[in-house]
Design a protein that fits this description.
Elements: E1 2-5, H1 18-29, E2 34-37, H2 39-45, E3 54-57, H3 61-68, E4 72-75, E5 81-86, E6 89-95, H4 120-126, E7 134-137, E8 142-145, H5 149-155, E9 157-158, H6 164-170, H7 173-185, E10 188-189, H8 191-196, H9 199-202, H10 210-221, H11 226-235, H12 239-242, H13 252-266, H14 273-280, H15 282-294, H16 299-315, H17 322-339, H18 346-350, H19 355-367, H20 376-384, H21 388-408, H22 429-440, H23 443-474, H24 479-484
Parallel strand pairs: 3-6, 9-10
Antiparallel strand pairs: 1-8, 2-3, 2-7, 4-5, 5-6, 7-8
The structure holds adenosine-5'-triphosphate (ATP) and magnesium ion.
Length: about 525
């Protein structure tokens, strides 16, 4: 074990958050040992901004609870630890671990409980990689290195503490962690790690709880290093274990979304990791939509149902929580509405809570030319930059263009934004025209047409009724009708001049009934 002066390594308390200093000081004053460990020390040594600081102590979780009282919450069953609050910040405080007892491992070697307390010498070997096993005591100004961690950091090398296969088997999530650190730090994984990462070993991820895997994917998707991480996930066989329904290829869309996410994070913008799930599952979603439509489901229902189905299947691997599920489904369901908005709904679409995410999604699709967005990504992009008057004008223009397009739409183009209508090779041109019209007609247009037709029918009915009354006075019933006692059914022929008649309307003249032949034909 090496004890090093923190100042010599460029570490000092000013680099730490007030929260971690508060917690370490309180534990030390209560008579316990307390250190910063893991990513916080590693990242400071690399000149990076640590995501968080983790603490470790020889106090057991219940002792930590008695020191911090209400500020402390004990969490975890497999790996019990304390969440301690300092102001609005929360610090994870772990207790030194000793090797787990045998009964707490599964037949495949997975550790189901890792809650055997120990001392610092036992603790460092329980950590995953050497680079994560440095202990920093800021009040003493000391860094403890038990395993040449500093050398590995300097050499940009990821080495396991212990045998890679055994350590992966103990906790398969370490497979995701090692790829994450390799991508984040641009470190080389030791050859023994790369050799251990076989497709067979990757299958062990299926034994891990979907909740834990979701948490881990959240870290993977929100770290700002998706671009280097995704190829590693493919190369080392973990992709199919996490994303069973997503083809193991980096499509242009996934690649673009990954780059975009990284850029956003680098520029300090917020991201929702569920957005990347929406990107990853987009193709399986579209396939499911097509399948359901093929089974005769209406387009709208197919879109809703496909979202539910695809996410339910994904949840068997990574337990996407309900709020994230809603977020993803809303992004998907807003796509056709953004591509073919009704002009009058445009202002309210922008105010939807998911508009921004759905727009970003659409815009990304357009950037990789997925062929379905009809230029609406750019349209919404430009629209958002306009003031209110300009927006109204843009909507009017949009409405006019839409109407014109609808009129000019070539018959052969039967594909709408997402719904591709199969063209029957035997169909006549007239069939195609009807099919095209049916496809292109929006639901509201259809409703408007039905209303208009009903109103016209009503007008016709009244006109007919009036004419019946007139005709009844003009035309005498025939004998045949008179003998059956039936009233003449003047409705059976269209009255002259009505819309159902091709004949021009004639001026009526009072008739001389003495000239009318009253007998049978
Ligand atoms: P970052 O916080 O930047 O993602 P980190 O190294 O701090 O990286 P955490 O998940 O915060 O990672 O864990 C803190 C420390 O706890 C790690 O550095 C490591 O020493 C230890 N640790 C975490 N998870 C495991 C694990 N699955 N197996 C062994 N040790 C682990
Ligand atoms: Mg950490």
């Amino acid at each position: 074990m090496q004890t090093l002066r923190a100042s010599k390594l460029g570490l000092n308390p000013t680099l730490l958050s007030p929260a971690i200093l508060d917690i370490l000081t309180t534990l030390t004053e209560a008579g316990f040992e307390a250190y910063i460990v893991g990513g916080g020390v590693r990242d400071l040594l690399l000149g990076l901004h640590p995501k968080d600081f983790d603490a470790v102590t020889n106090a057991t979780p219940s002792q930590i609870k008695s020191v911090f009282g209400k500020r402390c919450r004990i969490i975890g069953r497999r790996f019990e630890l304390a969440h301690v609050y300092s102001g609005r910040d929360m610090i994870e405080v772990a207790t030194f671990r000793a090797p787990p007892h045998r009964p707490n491992t599964t037949a495949s070697g997975m550790v189901t409980r890792d809650n055997v307390w120990g001392n610092i010498e036992q603790d460092f070997v329980r950590r995953d990689f050497t680079i994560n096993a440095l202990y920093y005591q800021p009040m003493k100004g000391q860094v403890l290195d038990f395993c040449h961690a500093l050398t590995d950091i300097r050499d940009k090398k990821i080495r396991f503490l212990g045998q890679p296969i055994q350590r992966f088997e103990e906790d398969p999530v370490r497979m995701l962690r090692v790829l994450r650190f390799a991508a984040k730090l641009k470190f080389q994984m030791d050859a023994s790690i790369r050799q251990a990462l076989t497709p067979k070993l990757a299958e062990r991820l299926l034994e891990v709880s979907p909740h834990r895997l979701y948490d881990e994917t959240q870290k993977m998707f929100s770290g700002g290093y998706l671009t280097p991480l995704l190829p590693l996930m493919l190369e080392h066989h973990v992709w199919p274990m996490l994303l069973a329904d997503v083809a193991p290829v980096l499509t242009a869309f996934i690649q673009r979304a990954a780059e975009n996410t990284d850029v956003r994070i680098a520029s300090g913008k917020s991201i929702n990791p569920a957005f990347f799930y929406a990107v990853l599952l987009w193709q399986p979603f579209l396939q499911r939509v097509q399948q359901l439509e093929g089974q005769g489901l209406a387009s709208h229902d197919a879109w809703t149902q496909a979202g539910v189905d695809v996410l339910r299947r994904q949840q068997r691997h990574t337990a996407i929580p309900r709020y994230a599920e809603m977020f993803i489904r809303e992004i998907w369901e807003l796509q056709p509405r953004l591509i073919q908005p009704k002009a009058r709904q445009i202002p309210s679409l922008v105010t939807l809570p998911r508009f921004r995410a759905a727009f970003d999604f659409l815009y990304l699709r357009e950037q990789v030319a997925d062929g379905q967005t009809e230029g609406m990504g750019q349209w919404w992009h430009d629209y958002q930059a306009l003031d209110n008057d300009q927006r109204e004008q843009a909507i009017r223009l949009f409405n006019r263009q839409q109407l014109r397009q609808r009129r000019q739409q070539p018959i052969a183009v039967l594909a709408t934004s997402e719904r591709v209508v199969a063209i029957d090779p035997n169909a006549t041109l007239a069939d195609l025209a009807i099919q095209a019209e049916a496809t292109l007609e929006s639901r509201s247009a259809r409703r408007r047409r039905v209303r208009r037709e009903k109103a016209q029918a009503n007008v016709r009915e009244t006109q007919n009724a009036r004419r019946v009354a007139v005709l009844a006075t003009e035309v005498e019933p025939t004998d045949a009708l008179m003998t059956t006692g039936m009233k003449p059914n003047v409705h059976t022929r269209a009255p002259h001049g009505s819309q159902d008649s091709n004949l021009p309307r004639r001026r009526r003249r009072p008739r001389d009934l003495s000239q009318v032949f009253m007998g049978p034909y």
